[in-house]
Specification:
single chain, about 240 residues, alpha/beta, Rossmann fold, 7-stranded parallel beta sheet, two-stranded parallel ribbon, 5 helices, about 20% strand, binds NADP nicotinamide-adenine-dinucleotide phosphate, NAD(P)-bd_dom_sf, oxidoreductase activity, acting on the CH-OH group of donors, NAD or NADP as acceptor, SDR_fam, SDR_enzymes
């Protein structure tokens, strides 16, 4: 069966590399972005879909369109997420006094709620014969690993994402049987998201999006598919929840 891959957040650094990698391996790639991207951005079988608003209704309509075309997905990677946003002055909080209702709502909206809406609708078009759904999470979303503090909104929204994925994995397994959900920490990757935070990262620990895409695809193929949900990092190591 042909690998039908959906990448959400297609204009992003890691997403672009994943689209390139999957299409070069012969997969049919559906790429969703808020932005109007062109099908000529990548070689191979890539179709771009603009979804300017990613709420329950628009995601549902998009998934229904794919269902009408009899598309059955074998791999999904939801890359949607943000850490800082200049347009409304949101930066990761250093101390309690920096915590704001507006920033918390924005973090949860993008990092937890949008992926949750994708999880809700994609269950209807994922293959029952061996499918994988990945959400790009972050190690800072691990509650047990949090020794440093700070970054309240980003951390909490990624922890919420992890819980949503873990909870959905129980139902996905019941409904689809041969399916695996993965929360993935890509390490620090040289994209717009990490740019302001790269100063203290050793050069060899700042990964290219291309390396990141290859690592992710490699680790997915090695995971135990009997386990319905995994939280792993760029090196294939388990991250504690
Ligand atoms: N880079 C790192 O060091 C790093 C480390 C740990 C975890 N991660 C995680 O990896 C994922 C991808 O990150 P990246 O480094 O590739 O960052 P990126 O280049 O900024 O890509 C993130 C993508 O998320 C989508 N997005 C952002 N805000 C959105 C919103 N309000 N509504 C809908 N979509 C939105 C956008 O896709 P469209 O505009 O195309 O829709 C954007 O291109 C994120 O979830 C991030 O938290 C990254």
């Amino acid at each position: 069966m042909k690998n039908n891959v959906l990448i959400v957040g297609a204009s992003g650094g890691i997403a672009s590399a994943l689209i390139e990698q999957y299409s070069s391996e012969g997969a049919r790639v559906f790429a969703v972005s808020r932005a109007p991207l062109s099908d000529t951005n990548h070689s191979g079988d890539v179709t771009y879909h603009q979804l300017a608003e990613q709420d329950d209704r628009h995601i549902s309509e998009f998934v229904e369109q794919l269902a009408e075309q009899q598309v059955v997905l074998t791999t999904v990677v939801i890359t949607t997420g943000f850490l800082h946003r200049e347009s409304d002055g949101i930066h990761p909080e250093k101390r309690l006094e920096d915590v704001s209702e507006q920033a918390l709502a924005a973090y949860f909206s993008t990092n937890s709620i949008i992926p949750a809406m994708w999880l809700k609708h994609l269950v209807n078009i994922m293959s029952k014969e061996g499918s994988t759904l990945v959400c790009l999470s972050a190690r800072v979303g691990s509650i047990s690993d949090n020794g440093l503090g700070g970054w309240y909104g980003y951390r909490a929204s990624k922890a919420a994402l992890n819980m949503l994925v873990k909870t959905a994995s129980v139902e996905y397994k019941r409904r689809l049987k041969d399916v695996m959900l993965v929360c993935y920490h890509p390490g620090t990757v040289d994209t717009g998201l990490s740019k302001p935070f790269q100063k203290n990262v050793a050069a060899k620990k700042l990964f290219t999006p291309e390396f990141t895409a290859k690592q992710l695809i490699h680790h997915l193929s090695a995971l135990n598919r009997d386990q319905s949900c995994h939280f792993i990092d760029w090196n294939g190591e388990v991250v504690t929840w």
